[in-house]
C-alpha cells in the first residue's frame, strides 16, 4: 500500500476496484452511445448528447490514445471544417449554414474521439463498437418492421415514409445504411462462431436483410452488397485454411439462397412487389430533367467551378435548386470550397486506399477491421448517390478504420525500435 493510499484511508485494492468500476461504466457509456445511433428522428439525437458526454469522460479516465496517424485524420477533417466556416461567412443565408457547419465540426471531433478510444485497446474496443452497432441495427430493424406492417397503432405514421420503412430515422435512405455494419457483423458471426451462436447470427442476418429490403433504398442495397463483398474478400485472403474458405463460400451461397427465398415470400405481398418493382428501376422520374437529381448535379458543378471558396452549406437547396445535390462530394465542394472539398475527398478515398493495405495484415483485430472497412467502403461508394456527411454511422465506421490502423502503426513502430 502506498503512503497516499494509507493516508486517504483507501487500500490499494479498493482504489483498483474503484478504477475498475469507472472503467466498466465508461465502456458501458460508449456501448450505449453507439447503440443509440438507431434513434435520429429528432436532432440533436441521443447519439449527439451521449457523445458530447464522452468527449469529457473518455479523456478524463484515460480511455483514449492519440496516435500519430490520428492527427492526419483530424488535420484533414479540420481543413474541411475551416473551408466550411469560410463558406458560412460568404453564404447568402448565414444561420442555416452556421448550424450545418457546427454539426459537421462536432461529427469530425466525435470521429477522432472514437478512433482514439479504439486505438487505446484495438481488439477489445473495436469489438465493443461493432457489437453495439449490431444491437442498434436490430433495434432499428425492429422499429422499421413494426412501422411498415403497422403492428402498433400510429406506428406507420411515425416509422415509415413514402410507404418505406424508416424506423426511428427521418429518411429511409438513412435508415437502410445504418443497418449495414450490423448486417456484416451478423454474417461474420454466422461464418465464424460455433453452431448455437452461428444460428443467432443467421437469424440476425436474415432479419437485417428484411430491414434493408423494406427501406426500398437502392443506395442502401448497394452499400450492403459492397460491404459484404469487401468483408468476404479480406476473410478469404487472411483466413488460415482452404477448409475455412470453402465454408465461407458455402455460407455465402446459403445466404444468397435464403435471401432469394425471403424475397420470393415478400413479393407475394402486392404492396411490397409494386414498390420493389418501382425502386428497382435504374432511374426514377425525379432523377431526370433540369429540375431532377441529375439536373441539380449539373448546376452544382457549374457553381463549384465559379466559386472556389464555395457558396456555404444549405445555400444550394434554397437558392439554386429545390433539393440537395444528392452527391456528397459535390455538396462538400459547395459547402467548403475547393480546399475543403478536396480535404473531405482525400479523407474518404484516402481511408479506402490506406485501409486496403492494412486489411491485408494479419493482426488480432483483423476481423473487426474488415467489418468496419467494408462498411466504410460501402458508404464512400454511396456518397456518389446521396449527401451523407451528417450520418453518424459513417463517422463510427471511419473511427473503426482509423483507430485500428493507428494502433497497428504504433505497434509496428515500437516493434521496429525493439
What's the arrangement of secondary structure elements?
Elements (H helix, E strand, L loop, with lengths): L2 H6 L3 H24 L10 H16 L6 H23 L3 H27 L1 H27 L6 H5 E2 L2 E2 L6 H7 L1 H13 L2 H21 L2 H21 L3 H25 L3 H10 L13 H14 L9 H4 L8 H32 L6 H17 L9 H26 L1
Antiparallel strand pairs: 1-2
What can you see in these coordinates?
Helices cover 76% and strands 1% of the residues. It is mainly α and 418 residues long. The chain has one domain. Strands 1-2 form a two-stranded antiparallel ribbon. A hairpin with a 2-residue loop joins strand 1 and strand 2 (164-165). Helix 9 runs parallel beside helix 11 (218-238). Mean pLDDT is 89; it is low at 1-10.
Side by side, the strands of the main sheet go 1-2
**Overall 3D form:** globular
Q: Distance between the terminal alpha carbons, to the nearest Å?
A: 33 Å
What is the number of E strands?
A: 2
Q: What portion of residues belong to β-strands?
A: under 5%
N-to-C SSE string, H for helix and E for strand: HHHHHHHEEHHHHHHHHHHH
Sheet with the most strands, sense and barrel status: 2 strands, antiparallel
Overall domain count: 1
The value of Rg in angstroms is 22 Å
Structural class: mainly alpha
For the residues shown, what is the average pLDDT? 89
